[in-house]
Structures are given as structure tokens and as C-alpha cells.
């Protein structure tokens, strides 16, 4: 019979073990493998987050006619934009920029997501568009304020409802020349407050060469004006992130086309736009960069968008509020009213 | 307005990858867990901790004799160890409480322990209320294993008082220590007695959350068994013995070999599973969502009531005895005090506004 002092073991077992190994059927044996079971915490976390579900709030900004609603519907393969509730008539351009938020719960692979699309009709449509981003800025800050208020409450909710804007898709008009003054003003004012992802709308008006040149010019202009779009350089966590994000930054802004109609191409049904000279396939990487945008936005960086919003933009807002003499000053003229949602 | 939509197979958007995106970030960051062990000397606390986490945290320990123990007060000693398994990093902190229950007069011997727990809450509260929240260190105690001696007939007065002093501050998991000195029927009797007394004295030990309705039958059955097994009767060991042709952790007696991980010998495996493999995350959640929130709410209430009472603008937070600070810590404390004072004022005004809003 042997007896010896066990040194500190750190062995990696190859097999994936159930949360209750050694219980139930496997009998009463014991193991010296040195498997503690810490990695199961990932599974414990996953269960909890799956149960709780996710929120995602996306804002779309751009003057009317750029296909914003269609693009969002295409992204989430669902009629999630506010124009989807079967409106019949024309879009009526409002006198000032309005903020309209619509929420849907969509589910995929057991994951439930409450998606809120915040539309901004009226942006850039007036004759005089000075400061037309003010209502947008105000809305974004109001959401931060709401969250902050809940956070400092005595009896605060376990899961604070998150209405903060996680991502702002900014639609650039495919003029082929350069950014408009309004584009620059908007992004300058808001890139420090919210994650901005610029996209080139209705890019099927440009040939591949025109597209590349335009993208290149736009990127240069953004750089010249010091506009940091998402994913921002300064927030790269480590080399792995930096490499991945560098590639994305160089490919942005994505030139996209949206569509909710399907056509038959080579025996397959695809989403696209049918013209006399052919079908523009939305998900064909040779035709446009929709698939890139979708993968980036949804399949790889969705969580990161939320985290940057929470850890950086929100914290900046909060720090500023704390520094303001510790007092509450009204955000709007009448802050006793709820913002219209 | 909210509309429910379900997707068909064809329409694959891709946000089903969300849990993986969350997972990836957590694995990068790593996890932390703080476990406190409390009970008289000689209950096998250190041995059990080493058995649970396959560590050897107490290598250079020097055991005190009775004389040396006479003047010893309850200390709080922290051991930290980084463990990595399958790419997941855990920073484990064990909070030891030597001296507890060892004196002749053990009146309020739990006070240093409750003070320690409160201090960690206070530290977290300050950090959370401060300006720079980037790298907050979470030192809050997530679970307290309390070792009940197997020699008696149930809970002793000190056991009851200790658990009652702590049950609203930390997740208390009572254990029956050194269970190898009891026969199976004695263990059952003792467990029943202890469970009964826990209920009778109104001690709120850690409750395992209810099983989801969509879990399979086997899981539900196992969950039920676990719950009925409390308090866990445990045995620990730092030695390896050979039993039934295998090398196992165990204790060698002339009359047989006790195997730590043998379920018919003791509840060690069940405890380990609860603590690490199935409820570690929940223990942390309950600490954050319940114990800490209670502390915080109490703290804020005390702050605001004191402010209105004294009509002063200074920081009235009860300063718990912190270890002797150096200049740098002093400066940080002063900075945080100022932040906190600003925070209080803002809170006050907010509470006032909410009040006014209600009256309208």
C-alpha cells in the first residue's frame, strides 16, 4: 500500500466531462487525473445568458431614400424596420428629425434577441440641416441617463433594461465623389458618443473600380477629420484583436445593397434586385459587401459593440455626469416628461 | 410595441453565435472566485481545500500548540492561486479564519469575519461608485464553507450564532467535517438533526436554485439528490493510497481505506460538483445580486439619513478599520472619498426628484 504526498497537479484531460461526473451511472470510482472542472463555468454562464436573452439596439441614420429600412430588414431577415407594418403611402418627410424606435424579439438557434431598430426620419432632408444631429445626440444621451439613474438607484433591478444605442449605422450617399459636409459634421460630433459604422448605400450604382476609389477617398477623408469609426483603434484589446480589426477597418466602409425580394439565379433563390441587365445578388461577395457587413455586425462583433458601448461610451458619459458638481441638471427643457418612444 | 418572430431554417441571420462571442471574451479575461472557510482548528479545513482544488496551499504551515493559541485572536488570512484548466483561467482566493472558536471565551468571535466581508463590500461599493471603473477588483466573498464538528449531537450555540451572523452577508454552505469518524446511520441522524435545527433557528443557508423545467429527468433526479444531501458530510486528504488496485486520495486505517472521491464513503464529490462544476456561477450571482445589493441599499440609506440628520456635506460613511495605509493608499482613499461625496450629493438630489415626481 502506497502513501505519498500529492504535489500540485495540473493535468489537462482531453475528454469533455458532464457537469456531474462520477455521479449516477459511472459508479463510485475515483480519479487521480487531476481534473477539477473549472472549465465548466463557461457552460454555467452560457446557460444563464441563454435564459436571460440578449438585447441589441441599432440606430440607422441617413437622409431618406438611401434604403436604410430595406437594409436593416435584409440584415435581420425580418421585417423589423418601422416601415414594415404594411404602410401604403409615401414617406412623409417630417419637419424635424424624429426618433422612432421599434422592438422585435427574434429567435435563432435557441438564442432570443430583443432587437430594437431606431430610425431617424427627417435627418438631412431639410433645406437647412444645421444641427440636425441634435435630436439624435439628445436621444443617445437620454438612454445613458436612463441607465445611470437605474444604476444609482437604491433598489436597482437585477438586469437593468438596456436601451442604449449599441451601434449607429450611418448611410453615405453613393455619389462617387466624396463625403458630404453633413456626413463629416455628423460623424465628428457623434463618433465619441456612440459606435458609428459607416456604410455606402445603394452601391449598385457604382462599378467595382468606382467603388474602390470612392471607398478609398472616404477613408482618407475620415482620417483627415480625425473621425474614429467602429472598430476604434484605441480599443483593441490585444494583438489578436488588432490584427482582426485592422483588416476590417481597411475594408470599411462596406458598400452594400439591400433587398427583400427573391429571384431565381442559376437554380437558386437569392435576395436581389432585378434589372434589365441582370440581377444584383445581395449576398454575392462579387456584387456587394452585404455579407461582409452582416458577418462583421452580427456574427463576430455584436457582443463587442455592446461592450464598447457599456465600458467606454457609457463610462465617459457617467464620469462627466459625476464631475458636474454632483447635481442633476435637466437634459431638456422639461425633463419631467418621458422621452417619446 | 413588440412582435414575436420565429425563424425557419432557411433564414439564417447568425446571431446564434452570440453565446460564443460572450464566451470568447470571458475566456480571455478569466474568472475569479473567493471562498472562505470557517470552523475550529483541526476540522480538516486546509486538507479539504487542498483536496477540492488539487493544491498545496499550506505547505509551510506551522501548527500552533495550545499555549500559543491562548492569546491568538481570529485572523483573516488570504491565499491566492491561479489555476488553469482547458484554457480557462481561474484566480482562486481562499480566505482562511484561523483562531475561530478556539478560545475559551468565544463571544463574538465571528466579528472579524463579518467585518472582513463588509470591508470587501465597502471596497467594491467605493470602486463601483467611483470615476474610473475600468479595472475593479472583485474581492467579495462568494461562498463560506462552515465546518460543523462531527463529535456532537447537532449544532452548538457557536455554530448557530456564527451562521446567523453571516447568512445575510454571504452564501453559507454548512459541512459536517471529518465524517470518517461516523457510521452511515450516525451520519444520517446527524444530518437530519442539523437540517432540523437550521430550519428551527431560521438560518438561511445557500439555496440551490430550482431546476429548469426543460432539463431532462436524469438531471432533475441528480439535482434532487444533491439538495437532500445537505449538509454535506466530507472527508479530505493530502495523501494518496492504493485501494482496489487504483491510486486514490484517501486515508489509511488499520480497518480499511477511506476514499475521498468514493460516493459511498462521503459527499466530497457532491460538494466539489456543487462548488465548482455546477454552481460556481450561481454562487457569484447570488453574492452580487442579493448579498451585495442588500449591503449597498443599507449603506445608501444610512448615508442619506445621516445627511438629512446632520445637514452636513462630509462623507458619513462608517469607516471600517482598514489596514494601516501608506501614502499612496491614503491618497487613493482621499480621492475616492471625494468621488463618493459627489456621488452622495447626486444620489440625494435624485432621490429627492424621484420623491417629488411621486408626489405629483
From TrEMBL, chain A:
<dbReference type="GO" id="GO:0005737">
    <property type="term" value="C:cytoplasm"/>
</dbReference>
<dbReference type="InterPro" id="IPR016491">
    <property type="entry name" value="Septin"/>
</dbReference>
<dbReference type="GO" id="GO:0005525">
    <property type="term" value="F:GTP binding"/>
</dbReference>
<keyword id="KW-0963">Cytoplasm</keyword>
<dbReference type="InterPro" id="IPR027417">
    <property type="entry name" value="P-loop_NTPase"/>
</dbReference>
<protein>
    <recommendedName>
        <fullName>Neuronal-specific septin-3</fullName>
    </recommendedName>
</protein>
<comment type="similarity">
    <text>Belongs to the TRAFAC class TrmE-Era-EngA-EngB-Septin-like GTPase superfamily. Septin GTPase family.</text>
</comment>
<dbReference type="InterPro" id="IPR008114">
    <property type="entry name" value="Septin3"/>
</dbReference>
<feature type="domain" description="Septin-type G">
    <location>
        <begin position="52"/>
        <end position="324"/>
    </location>
</feature>
<keyword id="KW-0342">GTP-binding</keyword>
<dbReference type="InterPro" id="IPR030379">
    <property type="entry name" value="G_SEPTIN_dom"/>
</dbReference>
<keyword id="KW-0547">Nucleotide-binding</keyword>
<dbReference type="Pfam" id="PF00735">
    <property type="entry name" value="Septin"/>
</dbReference>
UniProtKB/TrEMBL annotation, chain B:
<feature type="coiled-coil region">
    <location>
        <begin position="333"/>
        <end position="360"/>
    </location>
</feature>
<dbReference type="InterPro" id="IPR016491">
    <property type="entry name" value="Septin"/>
</dbReference>
<feature type="site" description="Important for dimerization">
    <location>
        <position position="151"/>
    </location>
</feature>
<keyword id="KW-0963">Cytoplasm</keyword>
<feature type="domain" description="Septin-type G">
    <location>
        <begin position="29"/>
        <end position="302"/>
    </location>
</feature>
<keyword id="KW-0132">Cell division</keyword>
<dbReference type="GO" id="GO:0051301">
    <property type="term" value="P:cell division"/>
</dbReference>
<keyword id="KW-0547">Nucleotide-binding</keyword>
<protein>
    <recommendedName>
        <fullName>Septin</fullName>
    </recommendedName>
</protein>
<comment type="similarity">
    <text>Belongs to the TRAFAC class TrmE-Era-EngA-EngB-Septin-like GTPase superfamily. Septin GTPase family.</text>
</comment>
<dbReference type="Pfam" id="PF00735">
    <property type="entry name" value="Septin"/>
</dbReference>
<dbReference type="InterPro" id="IPR030379">
    <property type="entry name" value="G_SEPTIN_dom"/>
</dbReference>
<dbReference type="GO" id="GO:0005737">
    <property type="term" value="C:cytoplasm"/>
</dbReference>
<keyword id="KW-0342">GTP-binding</keyword>
<dbReference type="InterPro" id="IPR027417">
    <property type="entry name" value="P-loop_NTPase"/>
</dbReference>
<dbReference type="GO" id="GO:0005525">
    <property type="term" value="F:GTP binding"/>
</dbReference>
<keyword id="KW-0175">Coiled coil</keyword>
<keyword id="KW-0131">Cell cycle</keyword>
